[in-house]
Design goal:
The chain is an alpha+beta fold. It has one domain (about 1-60). Helices cover about 30% and strands about 30% of the residues. It has helices at about 10-15, 20-30; strands at about 1-5, 45, 55-60. A 3-stranded antiparallel sheet has the order 1-3-2, with no helix packed on it. Strand 2 and strand 3 (about 55-60) form a beta hairpin. The N and C termini lie close together (about 10 Å). About 10% of the residues are buried.
Length: about 60
């Protein structure tokens, strides 16, 4: 299985403060993952601090 995190960084809050926004996104989703079983097909949209969709994370593949 693979955990994939894709974030568009060329507009909005990520363009203005890429380091700060990525830190915020990683902290938030790192803590939020406990609400998922982390199975193939799981995923969610990712939003910046202005609540604009900037990406997505997902689990691909199969265990074993």
């Amino acid at each position: 299985m693979r955990f994939l995190l894709e974030v568009t960084m060329d507009e909005g809050a990520l363009a203005e403060d890429p380091t700060g926004e990525l830190q915020r996104i990683l902290r938030y989703w790192g803590g939020n993952l406990k609400h998922y079983e982390l199975r193939a097909g799981d995923g969610a949209e990712i939003y910046d601090s202005a609540y604009r969709e900037v990406g997505r994370w997902r689990i691909e593949g199969q265990a074993g």
